[in-house]
# Entry
Amino acid sequence: MKLLFKQRFFSWLDSYDIFDETGNVVFQVEGRISWGHCLEIYNMAGLHLGTVKEEVLTFLPRFRIYVADQLMGEIRKEFTFFRPKFTLDFNGWTVEGNFWQWDYEVMNGSETIMRASKRLWNFTDTYEIDVVKPENVLYSLMIVLAIDAAKCSSGND
# Structure
């Protein structure tokens, strides 16, 4: 399943529309006022599905992933000198790729969970997400949101 993740152009807070392959909006992401990034994900019926919330007062960006109100895991940016690196503590998955080029994959061992790439030369942040199994769509979206927010927090946007 492919998703197109587009930040809204006129938005004070981080807000995104998530489109499916046919151009229909399938999720909406609304930024909330808080210390650090707080992104809430809704389906098109308005049901709250999950939250990506930045932990504040940390040396490097760290985000917790909640489905409904249950903590499911976290993603954190690691200290490196030459290339960005993220550690994912969620379902035993790992995140690998070229973060300078905005291309990365989430893996479960040798199995690909999803691939994400940023489309350059757009007015707003726009990603293409290719999720292998439909049951991993929400999780994949949350990981991409966290990485995008982490890169913004550290000034690597």
